[in-house]
Amino acid sequence: MNRIETIDGFRSLQAELADSRKSSGRTLVVSSGTCGIANGSRPLIDALEKELKNRGLADEIALRITGCLGFCQIEPLIIIEPEGILYTRATAQDAAEIVEETIIGKKVIDRLLYVDTATGTKCRSEQDIPFYNKQTRIISGNNVKMDPTRIEDYIAIGGYEALAKVLAQGKPEQIIETIKKSGLRGRGGAGFPAGVKWESCRKAHGEVKYVICNADEGDPGAYANRGLLEGNPHSVIEGMIIGAYAVGACLGFLYVRNEYPLAVELLHKAIEDATEGGFLGRDILGSDFDFTISISRGGGAFVCGESTALMASLEGQPGEPRAKYIHTVEKGAWGRPSCLNNVETWANVPLIINKGIPWYTSIGTGDVSKDPWGGSKGTKIFSLVGKINNTGLVEVPMGISLRKIVEDIGGGVRGGKRFKAIQTGGPSGGCIPENMLDLPVDFDRLTEAGSMMGSGGMIVMDENNCMVDVARYFLNFLKEESCGKCVPCREGVERMTEILTNICDGKGNPGDIELLLELAECLRDSALCQLGVTSPNPVLTTLKYFKDEYEAHIKHKKCPAGVCKALITYSILTDKCTGCGACLKACPQTAITGEKKKPHMLDQKVCIKCGICHDTCKFKAVAVA
Amino acid sequence: MPKLTIDGKPVEIESGRTVLEAAQKVGIRIPTLCYHKEVSAYGACRICIVEVTRGKKTRLVTSCLYPAEEGITVTTNSARVLKNRKMIIELLLARCPGSAVLKNLAKEYGVGEPRFSKKNEKCILCGLCVRVCNEIVGADAIGFGLRGTTKRIATAFEKPPESCIGCGACTYVCPTGAIQMESVAREQWRDKLAAGGRECRYSRMGLISHKICPRSFDCHKCDVDQRMEIVLKTHPILASKPAAVKQPVQLGEFSIVPDLLYSRAHMWTRLVADDGAAAGPSPARTEQRKSQPGQGQGEEPGPAGTEQRYAKVGIDDFAAAFLGEAHSVKLPPVGTSFKRGEPFAEIFVGKRSLRLPAPATGRIVDVNPMVSAVPGLATGDPYGQGWLFIVETPEIAKEMKNLLPREAALGLVRKHSEMLHERATAGLGVTITDGGGNLVRNLPEVLSDSDWNHLTREFFGGM
Ligand SMILES: Cc1cc2nc3c(=O)[nH]c(=O)nc-3n(C[C@H](O)[C@H](O)[C@H](O)COP(=O)(O)O)c2cc1C
Ligand code: FES
């Protein structure tokens, strides 16, 4: 692309690209983000390309390779535009049939349609799928419209329009005012109002300032940021450019974890294209504003997502947090005023500039017209995972109830099991029980419930999850990911893990719960960074909502969910066992013996309590106690 | 001077100090473990927590880091502070049950037998040894290894560190006696010193004249060692603080980083390791790995005559302040050779431009792409992100002799600064200082042609 020298030049290019997009004919969209690639999108794309070429359709039918479309479980998806027919999990073997039947014959291939788990109905297009039509995809909905490697696609659907708009106005303070009034709050964890942060950074003393994008996304099970970076990298970049203009920064850093190789590759390409096109570099779009972005790859330490640790890591120092008595907007990376925001926060910025405050504030909760802390506006993308029918990235308006996310979008708990809890906010979030499912999801309500928004992980748990074990799992994660600098976190989290492990191993003592609470209080009060301060959350919420499970473990040496191995035994119910032999074959320890058609026996001395027999038995003849 | 209240006592202390320092000033004792007044505060042990009320908000903070601000109220021993401090002591005592310091603290605060299993470590990971070695000695021989519960003090690649000068400052500051002058390190000097004689560590540090060690480096048995500590009331290296000079020196409104070499035309030069230059096309990456000069880590200006052949070059803060904000920077392409004194880079500000003479003879091997993209960096962050290029200089030792070290560079800036301010008061029809006597930021705009020519020749013409 030629470098765009003026705002008018940009507008005419945009009109041109938008026109040519409208007049383009049919398009085959294939999703190929990390999830799509893992499920074989690349051979599928090759096969489709070959098929189109062989039939001489290569010029007539466009092929658009997009990032992840959110429904990771059934990707790669194929969408045929303009009809909107959607196929799931197609493979290279299906390519010929798709071209033959659907492209040429205009017929729908029934076999490749999505079948809704809850209703069993076949869905022809995205609009028919409950997983999609119950969401509000104002940010992630753009992924389907563009090839992330083509800046032209982004411009054609209105990309960089917001940048042109703010540069034409030339009033950085006004951008800050808009962001403040929109009520946009940081999507990376604490929900700090972005406009307030930008304002302090603008006012901070210093000529060199930085904007930084936090794409470290270290929470286990969370990958919402990856979906955006891979599907729509330019939206994040545009947000950063606007932010830099607003705060007066000349350099930007994108801190991406190295485990996201595709995102890194696409971001490099996007920055290159944006620089070539005149959206980055000197005199952006003919204004006197200069800004560049450089990519920095993180080693994947969870703690490096914390703002000060991230900045230390950016500087090439060990990724350890420091006290924030002087804020990073005043002294951040290299001691300069630095404005750090999450990937999703940045991606919201162009949208707000383009669509305006009234539109944006119409989505969400509370009133932010006077106080940017007054509510939660816009949408939030969650990675919905765990024991749920539909796993994937879901974008919902703030204030939606947990129940709607779990039941309507997620399609309920997998395998007809009973819902037990939903864990939000990453490892230092909390578990919310069934009777609180109607809780509206926004920053403040989640915090009130003892959990938090975090960077958008949501893990669904069913009756087969032991809540003590869950707390132990998260504390163990935090123990391993603590940087080890401050005493309460390094030693305290380890001791909490130790106590929880003892409880799970049947070695719990009376007084353990009190000691856990005491440690939790010390961590909350005196740990250096938020990793330590929030680390007791998994324990505190499970203690608050599932105290009976702790007591069963400690007092009665029982694990009600049948998870903690030291506390359970498997046995075969002779009256139910049909002697089919399935468990006998499946048992890795050959602990099960018996003749065909006669009740089998389980030798407790050999049994390692792996539970395979229980999962294998079709007659519910293996009991856990 | 901020005024604050600590445990009901009013305290007044110069700004920029911490709550801990303010407390010490009025004789209030706050326990510390990871703090030492000669090195930067780290905030890791959390034993020094206090309760601070600022406005309506009360919270726990570490006093060794929290700034002594106007109007705050500090409580050093509230119930909340004590409760947390006791738990921290208990946790540390479970880690290091043998430590005398911790046992004393436990006694003082009434902490009994820890309720956790004992670990029998000696080190509490306060990191004092690391900071002393890095910030004071400048040897960087030890650092932290690993993370979380496995974190420990380690040397690079777990090998005896070559940069260790055996000064023993780490053992001196260690609060728990976990780090000792051990035989491995001793053996290592012995090997190294075999030819040059068994030289005493203080003589190696340049603190006493030449002395041979008669005791196999069992320093704690040595009179010299003992005397040193008695005379100085501290470890000699802490008293000498050689690395402390690395902080930028403020000369009026100009900040000068002392451990760089300067040309008479206000350009700084710093030797960089070969790999720094060879990392090549992505100086962006190079920049992230290496932080600003003056932060005392990474590329040191090694003694002239070593293997290094590459030097990083930028303008100093005097030039940056004189220019205001660069609008464009023109650098010759990679591969260009030039002689010392030859004009080679051009910085544009408004209608004016300034050509800068090369500080050394050599060939450009890398230019900073960020500066071409964002020219304001060259003047806004002259010692950091605003470096200009890397030059390869075959006879680097000779070239570097032409440059000005610390004192001479400071002298030059002082002289030029005085000249500039004289001009300002001489009333040449223009105002080049603001109300506070500081230089205005748009000098190139306000100076007349003849003044501009005269001053630039004076300041940037010499070699
Ligand atoms: C242990 C820890 C890990 C964090 N990880 C992330 C992360 O992966 N991504 C992120 O955006 N923010 C993370 N944060 C939050 C950041 O510190 C910071 O608040 C955020 O990036 C600011 O951006 P926002 O205001 O847009 O949310 C983490 C915080 C802590 C304490
Ligand atoms: S002395 Fe302040 S945290 Fe260690």
| Sequence of strands across the biggest β-sheet of chain A | 14-13-17-15-16
Given this structure, which CATH class of the largest domain in chain A is correct?
Answer: Alpha Beta
Shape of chain A: globular
Low-confidence stretches of chain A: none
User: What Rg of chain A do the Cα atoms give?
Assistant: 27 Å
Give the CATH topology of the largest domain in chain A.
Answer: Rossmann fold
CATH architecture of the largest domain in chain A: 3-Layer(aba) Sandwich
**In CATH, what is the class of the largest domain in chain B?**
Mainly Beta
Lay out the secondary structure:
The complex is a heterodimer of chains A (625) and B (463).
Chain A: H1 7-23, E1 27-31, H2 34-38, H3 41-54, E2 62-66, E3 77-81, E4 85-88, H4 95-104, E5 114-115, E6 122-123, H5 130-133, H6 151-156, H7 161-169, H8 172-182, H9 194-203, E7 210-215, H10 224-231, H11 233-247, E8 251-257, H12 261-277, E9 292-298, H13 307-315, E10 338-342, H14 343-355, H15 357-361, E11 364-366, E12 375-377, E13 379-386, E14 392-397, H16 402-409, E15 419-424, E16 430-433, H17 443-448, E17 457-462, H18 467-481, H19 487-504, H20 512-526, H21 530-534, H22 537-545, H23 547-554, E18 570-572, H24 582-586, E19 592-593, E20 601-602, H25 612-616, E21 622-624
Parallel strand pairs in A: 1-2, 7-8, 7-10, 8-9, 13-17
Antiparallel strand pairs in A: 1-3, 3-4, 5-6, 11-12, 13-14, 15-16, 15-17, 18-21, 19-20
Helix pairs in contact in A: 1-7, 3-4, 7-11, 7-14, 8-9, 8-11, 10-11, 11-14, 18-19, 18-22, 19-20, 20-22
Chain B: E1 3-6, E2 9-12, H1 19-25, E3 49-54, E4 57-62, E5 73-75, H2 79-95, H3 100-109, H4 128-137, E6 142-145, E7 152-155, H5 169-173, H6 183-193, H7 201-204, H8 223-232, H9 236-240, E8 249-251, E9 254-256, E10 261-262, E11 267-272, H10 274-278, H11 283-289, E12 310-315, H12 317-323, E13 328-330, E14 337-338, E15 343-349, E16 352-357, E17 362-367, H13 369-373, H14 376-380, E18 389-392, H15 396-401, H16 406-426, H17 443-446, H18 449-460
Parallel strand pairs in B: 1-5
Antiparallel strand pairs in B: 1-2, 3-4, 3-5, 6-7, 8-9, 10-11, 11-12, 12-18, 13-15, 14-17, 15-16, 17-18
Helix pairs in contact in B: 2-3
